[in-house]
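hiii so um. not sure if this is the right channel but i have a protein structure encoded as tokens and i wanna go backwards to a sequence. like what aa goes where. can anyone help
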């Protein structure tokens, strides 16, 4: 059995999802020879630390009832710096202005030779090359499947399952909030504002939806694809972006009469990175409804390969993190 000592830095929806899947999948992990031992957890104010492994069930309960993870007044950054462990799960909030705590946490982890698995796209959309270099210098493994498309595999699909293929283009729907709003506008012939309000009520959209509806979230994911799959050194400023706020029910109806839907499509290849509303034939693989995500990879050997799945959610995102963890340590 291989024991991997790990920390979870950021204990919101995704961090808690990771704790839950570690509890639920304990037997499965043991069967594949892996013992992931969480030695520290941090949220924005507190930490729980135990070198023999913290009690995940108790910490989940404390976070839900008291709003904090533990008694210690230690920051995530201090944990990464000072506590002996191999793997950092970085699940703090996305910040695309400075890279936020996530950027500092990842650089600190690499400085100490720790591996990193993250769902935080901010640092990767801002400082991809710097992070790769730091990971290289620390001899650290760095995986981030969860940053693009949540549970839907895209990066590992391109890098592992389609290894040997040259990927010539990637396009798809990478934001569930926009897809939900557009799908509902089409179904109800209702205006954008009304369907945004519905999405907010049902928890599909944030109180401040700017990031999603203006296409910025999709742009960050396209940047990660551009850098990881096409070897670019792009930031979100290199993306041409149009959001969905100006789309009218009339435009959707006109499209529908001609056999099309309108979707917010992100597209990347080695000469451009683009995000904007596009007409998609109703029977096209990219025409998925609700809050689903979809990605179509154009390849030289396999032709088009399309995957669809849930782009967000606590357990769904944790699933992508878990698969990265397993693939690092099973090797
Ligand atoms: N939710 C999803 O479905 C999803 C999907 C894909 C990717 N992501 C990405 O995954 C990351 C986490 O998302 P989330 O939904 O879990 O966010 P969240 O619910 O807002 O949780 C963020 C967590 O980070 C903690 N935190 C903030 N600053 C910190 C710091 N400096 N040090 C340590 N912890 C800190 C917060 O502490 P408090 O609890 O004390 O506030 C909270 O526990 C984000 O980057 C997000 O973009 C999320």
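sure thing!! here u go:
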């Amino acid at each position: 059995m291989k024991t991997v000592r790990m920390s979870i830095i950021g204990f919101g929806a995704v961090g808690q999802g990771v704790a839950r899947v570690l509890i639920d999948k304990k037997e499965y992990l043991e069967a594949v020879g892996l013992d992931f031992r969480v030695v520290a957890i941090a949220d924005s104010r507190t930490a729980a630390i135990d070198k023999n492994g913290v009690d995940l069930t108790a910490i989940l309960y404390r976070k839900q009832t008291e709003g904090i993870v533990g008694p210690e007044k230690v920051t995530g950054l201090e944990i990464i710096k000072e506590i002996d462990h191999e793997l950092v799960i970085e699940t703090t909030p996305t910040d695309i202005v400075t890279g936020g705590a996530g950027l500092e946490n990842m650089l600190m982890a690499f400085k100490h030779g720790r591996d990193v698995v993250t769902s935080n796209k901010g640092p990767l959309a801002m400082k991809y090359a710097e992070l790769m270099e730091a990971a290289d210098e620390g001899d650290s493994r760095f995986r981030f499947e969860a940053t693009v498309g949540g549970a839907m595999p895209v990066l590992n699909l391109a890098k592992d399952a389609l290894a040997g293929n040259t990927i010539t283009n990637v396009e798809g729907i990478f934001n569930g909030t926009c897809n939900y709003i557009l799908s509902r506008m089409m179904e109800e012939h209702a205006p954008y504002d009304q369907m945004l309000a519905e999405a907010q009520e049902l928890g599909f959209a944030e109180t401040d939806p700017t990031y999603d509806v203006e296409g910025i979230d999709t742009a960050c994911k396209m940047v990660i694809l551009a850098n990881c799959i096409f070897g670019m050194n792009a930031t979100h400023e290199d993306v041409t972006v149009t959001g969905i706020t100006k789309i009218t029910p009339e435009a959707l109806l006109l499209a529908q009469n001609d056999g099309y839907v309108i979707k917010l499509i992100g597209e990347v290849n080695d000469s451009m990175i683009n995000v904007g509303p596009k007409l998609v034939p109703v029977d096209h693989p990219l025409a998925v409804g609700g809050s689903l995500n979809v990605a179509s990879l154009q390849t030289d050997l396999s032709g088009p390969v399309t995957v669809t799945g849930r782009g967000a959610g606590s357990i769904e995102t944790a699933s992508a993190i878990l698969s990265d963890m397993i693939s690092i340590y099973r090797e």
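oh and The chain has 14 helices and twelve strands.
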